[in-house]
Design brief:
Length: 905
């Protein structure tokens, strides 16, 4: 497939040789760059990139040693602006980095040893800036964490050279070249520190042609996917064992050290740069999954739109892509045949709405999270990457990927460097009913073992052949040791790091750790206690790793499966856990924390205020100050059973008098006791995530319904699916499942459609029966499909999930998936988020709140008199004031305290 491109593209066949990289002044003068571009020698010719740099053409992917040599020369040439940081050497000088070795897991060698490489970060800033380094904004760009996806590394290294060269030689150059806009290179390096992370040395090393490599590898030397190895708030896939790998721990320790050295205590932004096979868009900008406040959401959208606009100008030199409105075209894409071309330049959205799945443990979500860098975290996928056999270098595609990644990096820097203040003013007064109960956990775990002072057992090393396995003993305190955990590191027979050992993905066919003797009568002699999680055997990895906490003393064996050849095993014991996963992190969250956080960006005179049910039940006038009242995921929060009907009557009266009642998620059933819909017409279902298809019987509703307004933003992606033979072509995700504790499959795509062949889904989505909604006079802005149960392949149903129902002078607006309560039913060792609203969800909030209540003019005051409104309390409730019973007065007092707490900034 090498060299096959659409008509009109320049072609030259690359040799299996090193990229020309300048490492001294002589070669630099000839080449015009340290890292020249694939189109460096043909820039200016028809069909070539106008943004290409250098005077010669890159003819192969960057190799490890030449990249380091080039970076060292760039550092020598421009020491003011670039530092190549060797983390192993830095750790020797800085004990605060902990016990990490700052080396890779190591690519397996033919002699069953490991070739470990030091971890490096490229630090770009102005060492002579008048701005103290602690006050400069931090940005992190993770390059090719999947070793086969070369786009990130090829683009990121050259972006670093751009910034350094511009700052030194053309400091007034705006970084957004196609539009000649954005901050200048001098302003960027004076006001920011930009880190480029060489994320996966092992996966890189295995494909280096000049080193005799076979093909690049997605994983590190342990056969672990580093982009599943980072901790995240919410649901965590236990098989990923977060922070099990030296690369993820090492880079995280360094970046957190750098964050701690800033006045802000966090990074400003970060992007994880990937490559994908094929899609209708050449680039996908993926927004992170987490508890993003209004500011983070606004900046993410701004960055995404800037990236889209930049890509429309930066990438359309190539016949492979076309501007929006002209893409995707009618020609079959020649590489993988999965789409047609020309492709679109760039689209952005959630991971599910772009590449159609979500997972846990990604570095971009970690960068976005408060337990990571607390940055605006984004990921990106560039198409037509890792052409078979993963080392196939196509100059045109690589140039496109370099250009696209530069545009993404520069767009985020431009969006965040001189950040404008973000504010939101609701059109009218808004009240919300706080969740009556919070989801909490004090954190911590079991009491420390009284044996914790004992040393761990000494490591065990053994070599076996032809799958015979290895047996060993785990000792107990009677031997003077205490093993809090153990790790098995396996290195299999291989050629250039490639092994047929783990081609199969099932746990029974891979590496298994077993203990002799079961816990119950009739158990087999050997019982599996842990196994290597083999995400995919397609990469023929030659290394594997198993982690086991609190191993019982006894006889164990490593069973490597049905295989031929030699294998080396090293068992390491630890006094504590082998991976950094807490027993349970503390949390104290409620979905209605969303409104308190939103108030941070709302002017004081327009704050969203809590509405306390006791006050509403005592007096209908308690709702009078509000234009909009919101109930999120609970139709009657904290309302006693014998007062629920009165509660719903008060809500209906508020609407009939011109109010806007917003019902989200589990609050939709309020429509029935309010007398607006028949009983049984509101239904709860589950799906992969919260979502809405913005369509009715006539098609897309973006331009036809006010609740759908602003959702189809410039460059935004639409998810598409066919579910139970019905097409949903305008899907947008409204909340993320994992941060709230809802399940996400380890296999990623397998539960994205909640299909019969996939995994279970448990993210709640609420819908209203179409006919009942229409009969009541409701309008439709969106519909949703859901499964009846959490069991894979359960029956499905669809209904209205976004719409408006006129009632009297007011209206009821519904959003069936927006702010569900977090769940504790799934594994969530790093805590839970209160909410995980997507950019679409934030747009819906603005649309749902867009209401000003019609109010009659107040009656004229009569001179000499004072009118005090007297309202008799409802039947069954005591009067308020001095005569009120103590219990009800205490209830009002507690409600007031809760209100102050809920609106804290």
């Amino acid at each position: 497939m090498l060299g096959v491109v659409w008509a009109g593209a320049p072609r030259h066949t690359p040799p299996a040789a090193a990229v020309p990289v300048a490492t001294d002044d002589v070669t630099y003068d000839v080449m015009g760059r340290v890292f020249p571009d694939p189109h460096g020698c043909i820039k200016g010719t028809p069909g070539s990139s106008p943004w290409a740099k250098g005077d010669v053409c890159a003819v192969q992917y960057l190799q490890w040693e030449e990249t380091l040599a080039g970076l060292r020369y760039l550092q020598e040439r421009y020491p003011r602006f670039l530092e190549l940081v060797n983390l192993r050497e830095l750790r020797a000088r800085d004990p605060s980095l902990g016990a990490e070795e700052m080396q890779s897991a190591g690519l397996p060698q033919e002699d069953l040893t490991r070739a470990r490489r030091d971890l490096y970060v490229v630090k770009v800033t102005d060492a002579e800036s008048p701005v103290p380094e602690a006050d400069r904004k931090r940005f992190a760009y993770v390059l090719s964490i999947h070793g086969i996806e070369r786009a990130g590394l090829e683009g990121g290294i050259r972006a670093a050279e751009d910034l350094v060269t511009w700052a030194a030689e053309d400091p007034h150059q705006p970084i957004l070249e196609p539009s000649d806009s954005g901050p200048t290179a001098r302003d960027v390096l004076r006001n920011a520190v930009v880190y480029f992370v060489l994320a996966n040395p092992d996966g890189w090393h295995r494909g280096e042609l000049t080193e005799g490599g076979a093909f690049f590898q997605r994983y590190n030397g342990n056969g672990m996917d580093l982009n599943r190895d980072f901790p995240g708030v919410g649901y965590t896939e236990a098989q990923y064992t977060p922070f099990s790998e030296p690369e993820s721990r090492g880079f995280a320790a360094y970046l957190r050290r750098e964050a701690g050295a800033t006045a802000a205590g966090r990074f400003a932004g970060g992007i994880d740069l990937h490559g994908m096979l094929s899609s209708h868009s050449f680039s996908f900008t993926l927004l992170g999954a987490g508890q993003r406040d209004y500011r983070k959401n606004a900046i993410s959208v701004d960055t995404s739109i800037r990236t889209f606009r930049d890509a429309e100008a930066r990438l359309t030199w190539s016949p492979l892509v076309a501007r929006a409105g002209e893409c995707p075209g009618p020609l079959p894409e020649p590489y993988f045949g999965r789409t047609t071309g020309p492709m679109c330049t760039d689209q952005w959205g959630t991971v599910w709405d772009t590449i159609n799945y979500q997972t846990t443990g990604s570095v971009s979500d970690w960068m976005d999270s408060a337990i990571g860098l607390d940055a605006v975290g984004i990921a990106n996928e560039m198409a037509l990457s890792h052409l078979y056999p993963n080392t196939a270098f196509d100059p045109q595609l690589t140039q496109l990927q370099i250009d696209g990644n530069k545009g993404l990096v520069y767009s985020q820097i431009a969006s965040l460097l001189f950040e404008e203040a973000v504010a939101y003013r609701p059109p009218g007064t808004v009240g919300y009913v706080p969740a009556p109960a919070r989801v909490t956990h004090p954190g911590g775990g079991p009491s420390p073992s009284p044996l914790a002072g004992l040393p761990a057992q000494e490591p065990i090393s053994a070599t076996e052949v032809n799958g015979a396995g290895v047996e060993f003993d785990v000792h107990g305190p009677e031997s003077g040791v205490h093993n809090g955990s153990l790790t098995v590191e396996a290195t299999f027979d291989n050629v250039r790091g490639v092994s047929p050992t783990l081609l199969l993905t099932g746990t029974d066919d891979g590496l298994v750790l077993e203990r002799q003797g079961g816990d119950h009568a009739g158990d087999p002699e050997w019982v599996a206690v842990a196994h290597y999680f083999n995400q995919s055997g397609l990469y023929a990895q030659a290394g594997a790793r198993i982690d086991l906490d609190t191993p019982r003393p006894g006889r164990y064996r490593i069973r490597p499966g049905d295989r031929v050849g030699a294998a080396d095993f090293r068992v390491t014991f630890f006094e504590g856990p082998s991976v950094s996963v807490p027993d349970q992190a503390a949390y104290d969250v409620a979905n209605t924390d969303f409104f308190a956080d939103l108030n941070t960006y709302v002017p004081p005179d327009a704050r969203i205020e809590p509405v306390q049910p006791p006050a509403v039940l005592a007096s209908a006038s308690a709702l009078a100050p509000f234009d909009t009242v919101v109930l999120a995921d609970d139709p009657a929060p904290g309302v006693p059973a014998d007062h629920r009907q009165l509660w719903f009557e008060r809500l209906r009266a508020f609407v009939e008098d011109g109010g806007n009642l917003v019902l989200t998620d589990g609050a939709l059933p309020a429509l029935e006791p309010m007398g607006l819909l028949p009983a049984g017409t509101v239904r709860r279902g589950v799906f992969f995530a919260g979502w809405i298809d913005f369509a009715d019987a006539e098609g897309a509703t973006y331009a036809r319904h006010p609740l759908a307004s602003g959702v189809a933003k410039e460059g935004a992606a639409e998810g598409r699916a066919t579910l139970d033979d019905a097409d949903y072509l305008h899907r947008h995700q409204t909340y993320e499942p994992a941060p709230l504790g809802y399940y996400v499959s380890a296999a990623g795509p397998s539960n994205a459609g909640c299909s019969a062949g996939g995994d279970r889904c448990d993210a709640p989505n609420w819908v209203v029966d179409d006919a009942a909604w229409a009969d009541a006079g409701g309008s439709v802005a969106g519909r949703t499909f859901a499964r009846a149960e959490e069991v894979a392949g359960s029956p499905g149903f669809a209904g209205v999930s976004l719409g408006e129902l006129p009632v009297g002078r007011g209206r009821v607006r519904i959003a069936g998936a927006l702010l569900p309560a977090p769940t504790e039913k799934n594994y969530h060792p790093f805590g839970l988020a209160a909410y995980a609203v997507t950019y679409t969800g934030y747009q819906l909030v603005e649309n749902l709140f867009d209401h000003q209540r019609p109010r009659a003019a107040p009656p004229p005051a009569v001179a000499g008199t004072v009118n005090v409104a007297q309202e008799r309390p409802p039947t069954g409730l005591p009067a308020t004031g001095a005569a009120a019973p103590v219990a009800w007065a205490l209830g009002l007092a507690v409600a007031a305290l809760f209100a102050r707490r809920a609106t804290r900034p």
